[in-house]
Amino acid sequence: MDAALPPPHVVDTSACTGEIHDQGAQVTRWAPRGAAPALYVSSAVRLAPGRSIRAGIPVCWPWFGAGQRPGMEPAHGFARTARWALVDRTEDAATGEVTFVHRLTSDAATSAHFPQPYAVELRSRFGATLEVSLTTTNTGPEPFEIDEALHTYLAVGDVREIAVEGLDGAAYFDKVTGTEKVHHGILEFAGETDSVFRSSGPVMLHDPGLERRLIVRTEGAGNLVIWNPWDAKAREVADIGDDDWSQFVCIEAANVLENAVTLAPGESHTLTYRLELESDD
Pairing mode, if any, of strands 16-21 and 212-219? Predict the structure, then answer.
């Protein structure tokens, strides 16, 4: 039997509920007070040291997916399964906001695929809105390049009924077909979707099943990645529950492909993801 992860840091204030794990500095739950969960948590989630957590907002760093060179493992980089250090936690009693700051450095986690000295900091602010910012600093003597993504799993009533507004006219790479395309109109879902948009939003997800709208805003992002595996591919993934594929869609802030970030020695870059929920009432 796998060892269990240490329990997450729990947020329960007048503004919201939520939780964040030190592994991966990963936000796994968030909801404004009185609202249904905004983030998806797999019914088959694995909470074990060194295993990726299929929930919330995994941090993909310093590469995305399979990476830009052959043999880069694990998928999505090593930061999401590393143990980050919690360096600060603050709470504002007046607003109900709680902010966590996690830090990871090359002294704690590294890879033959990315041996450069670095420091990354994840700042997560839980409140009536959720804000997550990833700051990368080059602490070494040579430039380096990174891919990065805040790989957000959004909970939905039924992915076949939702619509995403804000991508009209956006160019994208369709990873399912391997082709470049331009999107027109509102984005709806009728099959496997894995699209890297050359857009930073904002976008609005309309969810009639849960009678709400989720608004995604980003800063420092060159891409929005939108993903759902659909039924057949989801069955091939051990930590996605059998019927879970219809209950989430990923809308991710990212810098990938030609938008990979190059940092000179001493230089920093911040990628930010903001999530807001509005009821249809």
Answer: unpaired
Q: Quick check: 237 pLDDT over 50?
A: yes
Catalytic residue, candidates 97, 121, 148, 252: 252
Does 151 participate in catalysis according to the annotation? Answer: yes
User: In the predicted model, is pLDDT for residue 242 greater than 70?
Assistant: yes
CATH of 9-158+215-279, one of 1.10.10.10, 3.40.50.300, 2.60.40.1120, 2.70.98.10: 2.70.98.10
Active site residue 148: no
pTM, entire model: 0.97
pLDDT greater than 80 at residue 280: yes
Question: Which of 76, 102, 151, 183 is the catalytic position?
Answer: 151
**d(C-alpha 53, C-alpha 49), whole Å:** 10
